[in-house]
């Protein structure tokens, strides 16, 4: 990551942290104000397991502060307001978790359904917890219903499952009227996630990945993926790199990493392949490639030109192929040009996982 990109990212994180902390401060102030105006709300700021024992039932709980309203409208109003508070609490503390998810996953992309799940799950769990609280038979009945319905999902990223687990925890805390616990859980989780993301803990830079075994140029530039490249043309130009050549790959890899990171910000049509064109005549080869590539690619970009072997230059292209593209035909058409001496085509799936 360049110094300019690093500074821009730090500023973005700082602005997000200010908004996030302002939200928590506002929620805290509102909770304190509620306790001052309605002292009965103090019971909703702590989790007393003995008081929360299965003795209380809906309509019999006296957690609501406005007793005049409860006395006039009776247990039904008390039940309705308790349910609304349990679900509202889950929503209040899930919103910053959803913000944190979208902020920290923006570079690599995320699914809208996961964001919606983080927001909706605490509402459902909070309501269900309030429903089965103190009723063992209802709890077993709910377990049987869930087993029959068989809610199933598969997360592409294990971190998404952690966000879902936290959303369930927030719903449980809200359903038991433990708002202070929900506040602390939400705040601490968001701070830890942001810290891991900001300091890139566990991430590996492309330049620090040491290839094992003989590596062609395309393999060295796209580590992390065992898939072998498609290589055609002069075998001398596409032979595995020597030790002195490998020493020069780090700088090239860092530049390619910056392009892949920038491309990851796109929502759709990200680059998927790296095409290396070993050219004797750079200008003629570039014109030939650009004439042919439009027939096969949705989008493409010439990243840079590198010094190659035997007096050649290597044109480095990032490509997003059309679904109907016949890659073999593309290579055949390019290989037939006198200015192009060899070609390497490699998937960038492993590289994208490493840098985003």
Task: Walk me through the structure.
By secondary structure, the chain is an alpha+beta fold. The chain is built from 13 helices and five strands. It has helices at 3-37, 67-73, 75-104, 112-132, 136-149, 158-175, 179-198, 217-221, 243-247, 249-264, 282-293, 327-335, 349-355; strands at 230-233, 273-279, 297-307, 313-321, 340-347. The chain has a five-stranded antiparallel sheet with strand order 1-5-2-4-3, sandwiched between helices. β3 (297-307) and β4 form a beta hairpin. α1 runs antiparallel to α7 and α3 (75-104) packs antiparallel against α4 (112-132).
- Strand arrangement in the largest pleated sheet: 1-5-2-4-3
Annotation field: number of helices: 13
What composes the largest sheet?
5 strands, antiparallel
Assess the beta-strand content as a share of residues: 5-15%
Residue-averaged pLDDT: 78
Q: Please bin the fraction of helical residues.
A: 55-70%
Radius of gyration: 29 Å
Order of helices and strands: HHHHHHHHEHHEHEEHEH
Return residue spans where pLDDT drops below 50 for at least 5 consecutive residues.
Answer: 1-8, 49-70, 204-211
Structural classification: alpha+beta
Shape: elongated
Tally of DSSP β-strands:
5
What separation lies between the terminal Cα atoms? 11 Å
């Amino acid at each position: 990551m360049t110094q300019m990109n690093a500074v821009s990212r730090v500023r973005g994180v700082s602005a997000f942290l200010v908004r996030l902390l302002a939200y928590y401060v506002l929620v805290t102030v509102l909770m304190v104000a509620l306790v001052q105006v309605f002292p009965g709300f103090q019971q909703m700021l702590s989790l007393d397991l003995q008081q929360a024992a299965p003795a209380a039932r809906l309509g019999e709980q006296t957690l609501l502060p406005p007793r005049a309203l409860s006395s006039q409208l009776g247990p039904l109003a008390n039940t309705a307001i308790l349910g609304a508070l349990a679900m509202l609490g889950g929503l209040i503390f899930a919103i910053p978790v959803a913000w944190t998810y979208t902020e920290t996953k923006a570079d690599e992309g995320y699914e809208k359904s996961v964001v919606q799940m983080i927001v909706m799950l605490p509402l459902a769990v909070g309501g269900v917890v309030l429903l089965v609280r103190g009723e063992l038979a209802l709890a077993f009945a709910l377990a049987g219903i869930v087993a029959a319905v068989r809610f199933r999902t598969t997360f592409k990223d294990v971190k998404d499952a952690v966000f879902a687990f936290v959303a369930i925890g927030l719903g449980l805390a809200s359903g038991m009227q433990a708002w202070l616990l929900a506040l602390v859980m939400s705040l601490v989780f968001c701070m830890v996630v942001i810290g891991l993301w900001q300091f890139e803990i566990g991430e590996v830079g492309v330049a620090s990945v040491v290839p094992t075994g003989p590596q062609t140029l395309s393999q060295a530039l796209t580590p992390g993926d065992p898939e072998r490249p498609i290589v055609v043309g002069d075998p001398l130009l596409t032979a595995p790199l020597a030790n002195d050549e490998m020493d020069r790959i780090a700088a090239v890899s860092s530049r390619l990493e910056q392009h892949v990171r920038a491309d990851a910000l796109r929502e759709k049509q990200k680059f998927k392949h790296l095409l290396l064109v070993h050219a004797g005549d750079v200008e003629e080869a570039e014109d030939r490639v650009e004439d042919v590539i439009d027939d096969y690619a949705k989008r493409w970009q010439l990243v840079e030109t590198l010094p190659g072997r035997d007096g050649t230059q290597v044109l480095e292209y990032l490509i997003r192929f059309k679904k109907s593209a016949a890659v073999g035909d593309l290579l055949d058409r390019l290989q037939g040009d006198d200015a192009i001496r060899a070609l390497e085509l490699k998937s960038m799936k492993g590289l994208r996982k490493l840098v985003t």
